[in-house]
């Protein structure tokens, strides 16, 4: 089952997506802030890979977590953590990331109905990502944590 807006949709990862995700590339200035899909793919208990599809083509990817890792970002037991958002470099600049984040609420409601918030960490130097998340309705919670590349801002969005 998928969540759709026009030709853009969010789908739970399946093996049929692997070949397209393996071809993803990111410029170095983006790659330092996220993981390529195959690096983040490890689907297991509490990790839920999601593929951003345009038409029939995978153009992006992220992971939703409902594991113990979420506690590093929020005390809310009804929250999921979003990590590893990326759009394949050749597909960037087309609005796919923003549209995908706008579909996120419906996707979580449809597939993870026990959860009512999504949190994420964004590096203080990653201004484009901060702008994207804010445009999609995420808010800076004021919480901070230290990441591999320095301070991270914790953003959240209500799903209900």
UniProtKB/TrEMBL annotation:
Pfam family, one: Acetyltransf_1
Residue stretches making up the N-acetyltransferase domain: 8-160
Protein name, as recorded: GNAT family protein
Provenance organism: Paenibacillus dokdonensis
